[in-house]
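Team,

Forwarding the record for the chain on the shared tracking sheet. I've put the sequence and predicted structure together so nobody has to dig through attachments.
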Amino acid sequence: MSLASPHLPDPGFTDEVTPESVAAWIGLPENQRPRLIDCREEEELAVCQITGNEWFPLGTFPEEIPALTGSPERGIVVYCHHGMRSLRAAHFLRQTGFTNAFSMKGGIDAWSRVIDPNVRRY
């Protein structure tokens, strides 16, 4: 259930992408870049977020499969606070047959440290 995205690595070799990789395509038109899914809880989302994200808390993934996997040609990058929940989320999506799912290594904390220091750390 997945097609290759020109912006994502081969899913056979890794399940994570770096914040630098995400930053390289974040400004592309929405239909030309991988989907960026924030899987944190609502309280965390209120603290900070990455522009252009879609919000699906990790606990909702099982019932949100159709919405999450609706654009297989774009692929998905999931992020959380430090990268642990998003890695579980990417593995969950892969287990459902959506192989073009990745976790952003280090989460939004890494994004704040290496890409955008204006994103509040917590």
